[in-house]
């Protein structure tokens, strides 16, 4: 496995920004992904945006002193998501089950993606992509959640486009106050 795909390791400093055409193509990819997630088209998201060897990780954040070598999160500790493709498929299938009463009526989603940085890696088939996001979710008349964070993605070139091979989601909230986490970030 290439080091960049190892979810337990944060991105190293990349000093080779991708060319402008690649950056525009990645930005279009991320914007299309956000629109797909806004529509709750989760099967379409799996089919068109996610690669077979995906590792989708959103650790639980812990407040620790700066001097604590463990840092605020570590792979293997508590996580909201620590999923492969098979686990993501189970999550997606759950949305159409009659028992998914918490998702009926539907949640209204808005994914805002910005600060996109695209870097070449040592593997010409992989790109390192950093971005920030805001996810706004509204349900019924008064339920609203806002989640902010950073993403470290690894995109794999796939035909004329890309597929998501790794996503590391680092939220800024220490405690997620949402009633549920019925979204992908």
Automatic annotation (TrEMBL):
EC number: 1.14.12.19
Alphabetical list of Pfam families matching this protein: Ring_hydroxyl_B
Keyword match Oxidoreductase: yes
Highest rank taxon of the organism: Bacteria
CDD domains, alphabetized: ring_hydroxylating_dioxygenases_beta
Broadest EC class assigned to this enzyme: oxidoreductase
The keyword Chaperone is assigned to this record: no
GO biological process: 3-phenylpropionate catabolic process
Protein name: 3-phenylpropionate/cinnamic acid dioxygenase subunit beta
Species whose genome carries this gene: Stappia taiwanensis
